[in-house]
Amino acid sequence: MCPGCQNEKYTYLLPKTTAIDSTGPQRLNGGSAEATLIDVPAMAQKRVSPSDFAMPQPLTSLPSGPLKGRASVPGDKSISHRALLLGALSTGTTRISGLLEADDVIATARALAALGAQVENNRAEWVIKGRGVGGLRQPEAPLDLGNSGTGARLLMGAIAGNDITATITGDASLRTRPMDRVLDPLRQMGLQVVEERETLPLTLIGTADLVPIDYVLPVPSAQVKSAVLLAGLHAPGRTSVIETHPTRDHTERMLVHFGAQASVEERQSDRVISVAGDAELRGCDVVVPGDPSSAAFLIAAALITPGSDVTIENVLINPTRTGFYRCLEEMGADIVFENERSSGGEQVADIRARSSKLRGIRVPAARAPSMIDEYPCLAVVASFASGETQMEGLAELRMKESDRLSAIAEGLLACGVTAAIEGDMLRVPGGADASGGGPIQTRMDHRIAMAFLIFGLAASKPVAIDDATMIATSFPAFVDTMNDLGARLGQGASE
């Protein structure tokens, strides 16, 4: 039993296993005969992701009848990344059930295998045999994180305290995204970066002699906070991150779950998260609940499609992740959290949503950290509301897989909604102009793709997106799940 497991007991089935390591081709999908074999080092040496040369897959969403039924969504992406990383930094064995088996998380698993962790994918669970804090080994090739900004940034924190040199790269989209905000504090702790730039590929030189710091987050960012705390596991003394606005708290919860000496203290208007260095983490059992950001698309579809009644099971409702649902309640949505319960230190529930008459609202900037990934979804919902919705404090959206703020506005305009950007605020007028149409330029952004496919279900005209391949980074079964509920999504969709 691991610290923090609260007497949880599980029975694990071990059929054919999938080993992900750096020794050669391995199976990735549970060991079935149809599994694709992938050579980890060979892929890493290319410094590109498969999505760099995959053919675009246009997809069309048609106006649909009522959506009905129960569904589940993939495991939470944030928790999945962190469970893999802390498992790799632990001694002993970590068993993860419900892990999100999507491109972003698989990229993190491959990178950790290249750093010496033993990662096995069984049909029932993922099993990680860790290297311990400070025990990562020198990788033989660059670490390709695909499109995963979370994986890349958190991995930088994990690498910082190891006496190794590692190059991190990614796909064409990730290689354009800035890394300076996470590199700045890590450099203060002792990490060296060979290149004089802030975008991937970057070569990092870690050290066993990191120094602890007290770091005030200049902008709300759970990724920066997490990278600093992961690096702090290697530094003597205590490393602290000071938040002026709370961000998602999965890292600090999971650090305690793995036995780290981590604490959270409220100081006036600030939140101080600290971790003790020279840490010894012990492998744990982790149950990953459903991702609320993925559930948001299904909930949004039910709210705007007349006659719909949909329940999404086993969804994470951590208070730092429910800003989107608070907005929906303020808009008058018929949405209920049912069967609320605790699982592995996190709150989960089944979320029921029925089609609703919605009204526009003002969304304050302070709410952004608790729903930063859900703004594309909220913008679509707002398009079908009565009255204008104002979303404030959206500067962070420009740092996502795309300039997500402009991508949302351009997509809405293509669908007949006269949205406007004013500084870091987005104005979305509700009403009868949400006709649909498109086409939508997704900019290799999975959330833009899914949001506008949802738009087409309630519009008067089909909505076509230019590429759906990147949806696999977070929700591989999205199209099948939506169609099972009654949606009309497909490459060959027609009236």
Structure characterization notes:
This protein has two domains: 53-75 and 289-490, Enolpyruvate transferase domain (UDP-n-acetylglucosamine1-carboxyvinyl-transferase, Chain, Alpha-beta prism), CATH 3.65.10; 77-287, Enolpyruvate transferase domain (UDP-n-acetylglucosamine1-carboxyvinyl-transferase, Chain, Alpha-beta prism). It is built from 13 helices and 27 strands. It has helices at 40-45, 77-88, 103-114, 149-160, 180-189, 222-232, 250-257, 292-304, 323-330, 375-383, 404-414, 446-458, 478-484; strands spanning 18-20, 25-27, 37-39, 59-61, 68-72, 93-97, 118-121, 126-129, 143-144, 165-169, 192-193, 202-205, 214-216, 238-243, 262-267, 270-276, 285-287, 309-316, 334-343, 346-354, 362-363, 389-391, 420-422, 425-428, 436-440, 461-465, 489-490. It has a five-stranded mixed β-sheet, with helices on one face. Helix 4 (149-160) runs parallel beside helix 5 (180-189).
Summarize this entry quickly.
By secondary structure, the protein is α+β, with helices and mostly antiparallel strands. The protein has two domains: 53-75 and 289-490, UDP-n-acetylglucosamine1-carboxyvinyl-transferase, Chain; 77-287, Enolpyruvate transferase domain (UDP-n-acetylglucosamine1-carboxyvinyl-transferase, Chain, Alpha-beta prism). It is built from 13 helices and 27 strands.
